[in-house]
Amino acid sequence: MLDVSPSIYSLIALFVLAGVQLAALFSKGRLEAPSALRSLWIFFSAIALADWFSFCGAMWLLAFVSFCALREYLSLVDIRLEDRWGILASYLSIPFMFYLIQIEWYGFFIIAIPVYVFLLMPFFVALGGRSQGIVFSVGALNFGLFFYVSCIGHLAYLLFYSARMTLLMVVAVAIADGVYTSGKFKSLALRTLVRMAILCPLYVSLARWTAIPLVHSAMLGILIPVSVCLGRFTLHAVEQDLGIRADRLQPGRGRTIDGLKSYLFTAPIVFHYLRWFLKWGDL
Question: What average pLDDT is seen over the chain?
Answer without folding.
Answer: 84
